[in-house]
Prior knowledge:
rod-shaped; 74% helix; two-stranded antiparallel sheet; mainly alpha; single chain
Amino acid sequence: MSEDLSTIKQKLIGCSVFLVFAAALSFVALVWPDISPARDTFGAWFQRSGSVMVIGAIWVEFILFKINPFINPSESAYAVPFEVPPVYRKWFKALSGAAVVFALLGTIIWGYGDLFFIEDSNENSLEFTFSSLPLAEISNALLTPVIAFLAAYIAWRQWKTAQNRLKLDLFERRFSVYDATKGLIVSIMQTGKATDENMFKFLAATKEAKWLFDDQIASYLDEKIWEKVVDLQTLNSELEGLPQGTERTENIHKQRDIKIWLNSQLKEIDRLFSKFLRIEH
């Protein structure tokens, strides 16, 4: 959890620069093949640029995978200590999509980029051409990467399904904390007191809150909600033995103030929990 906004921005910029560099290298190798090393043919030089695209796409996906919990906190198994601007999420999605395209295109270039170059027997050199390539040869050449892409897509869908299951499980665990917190307050509003049963349910449901949410929510549940409920129960117990008089009146007023505060927290709970209770597919 050592990441911060500036680090995430640097990584997004680094990924963008790397993809631009990989695309520029392939473009240069295609348009200006004369810059290739003397020992390489133009086709081999263009093929090698495809390998750079694939490596770049893999590296970008690895970096994006590492920062994904910070970009999409609803998918994270732990709390994110800061809010990421929406523009970062759009940037992240654009880079993720570009990485997939680069991986596919780079694989095709890496495996079959030399087919776009033919030898000129008159000048004993290689020239870039599309028109003279037989259609059957191109189709056969593209068959393998297409199959590989379909296999990769199926694997990606399986991974995505597993991720969605994980997000649903995480949502359910977080929602149980949210539901127990609101349930405790609603029960107090209905009965006018905090019962041992409802307080035990709250403790059992919120014991993992510090692992599922950020420090703000964890301290809010422990230091505000729980303490107020304990104070209310204590005052209610003391009230039974108090005779009519000033002390009894003060006790009733204190209970009323706590109940008013707890009732006002229903909307605050929605606000605090909202960013952790989103399921984005």
